Amino acid sequence: MNRRSPFFVLAALAALLTLAFLLAPVVAVFAYAGPGQLLAALGDESSREALLLSLRTTLTALALIVLVGTPAAYLLANREFRGRSLVLTAIELPLVMPPAVAGIALLAAFGPSGLLGGLVESAGVELVFQTAGVVVALVFVSAPFFLRAAIAAFASIDGRLLEAARTLGAGPFRAFATVALPSARTGLASGLALAWGRALGEFGATLLFAGSLQGVTQTAPLAIFADFSRPDGFVSALALSAVLILVSAVLLLGVKLLGGDRASEGAAAR
Amino acid sequence: MGRALPRAAAIVLAALVGLVAGCGDSGDGGGASGGSLVVLGASSLTEAVGEYAEAFPGANVRTSFAGSDQLAAQIEQGAGADLFLSADTEYPDELFRAGLVEKPRLFAANELVIAVPAGSDLTSLADLAQPGTKIVVGAPDVPVGSYTRTVLERLPAHEREAILANVRSEEPEVSSVLAKVRQGAADAGFVYVTDARSAGDAVKTIAIPATLQPAVAYAGAVVKGSGDPEAAAEFLDELIAGEGAADLRRAGFLPPP
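YS: structure for the whole thing
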């Protein structure tokens, strides 16, 4: 672009404005109270418990998503059937669903008076007001991030590789485990990181479906909400926010690095 | 560089600023915009004050209802509001001491009650101590939560401990406590009489004995820097004695103590 063109200057201004606007709130979280106060606020028992609970519930949710989602994505990526694109779209629906809608939908399905509430109860499982309910909410909102990336990763594997594995005598499971999984690993990992990011930020569905109780269902975002309205709680809210921003940044960076990885691998293969 | 640049850039910037400012005027009111009033009200006032806000002749009123603690925090952070209506006296007093609102005035009172789903077997406060009863309360900082704790503190220690052990969720505002009971997610919740009444047949209520009742008083205060303090004060006057007060009584609120 010609650096002297009016358009270049306008675009540069727009870029500056965009950057300043998007970064100002992020910087403010760290600068408002300063690192000393933020660190001190993280010493609160409620903050620590919220972070630990967030870690525990998101990791459990991710484990479930990987265990069930990976084979499911593999099948969906490799099988042609009627209505496949409809199924793929349906899987992605929670991605664009407002969190409050997700919470209401979960209550309508699995709540005590929900359509499947009796089934949940007869299975001896309690979800509402329980940590398990938080995990259910997290899985619901974040699984699509992983599934979408996993389906794309499995679909992009060269079919001849899998065929070669089978001609060499590998069964379907062995082909999946030794060929498909390693080839799709970067896609799977970046999907996982995105799912983790979404799960860490989950607020609305958790509050509506699982409630908020310190140590049981009050994850970091819910603790931020509770802190905000506590007298002198603003700094605690900022401190938890700072931790979530840092973790999200690391996850995002991971996704970017993996993406770069995949691009170079693809180039090398060709 | 061409001469047109700074001018074009200035036009774009001005347009952006204009867009944001325009939204600010219609969204927050508060500031200098005449004839409109922003009222921040405690969650329990949603219906009664919401109704009166529509009928208020003095100005076009926009309302925002949430936990009083959240509203107070918003005012602390400089939200451009005109009138703050709290479900207690402490938050308005605190803001008054901080110089953020005018002197608070009492405008209503309320009572605490236990809401249970319509088909519930629970009949008394003591029943809430039964193991396995799922109870929801307001968070400690929202007025309904602090009133609930006042009630519990007046109980014998063993009963209080048993009830607290049954608490499954601390909700950010009274309306979400009631929602969890109405939904059948919780077996019981501490709410205001007025909330239980608004829920109609979906919930039953269990009275809390007079000796345990906390003094639930609502105070309102005009926010400093309001664009129309006269209209805001008039709105509060009407809630104390006038059309607004009539709406409050109809909803079950008591006269201020």
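YS: worth flagging: The radius of gyration of chain B is 22 Å.
IM: good catch. Also The beta strands of chain B are 36-42, 60-66, 83-86, 105-110, 112-117, 135-138, 167-171, 188-192, 203-207, 216-222.
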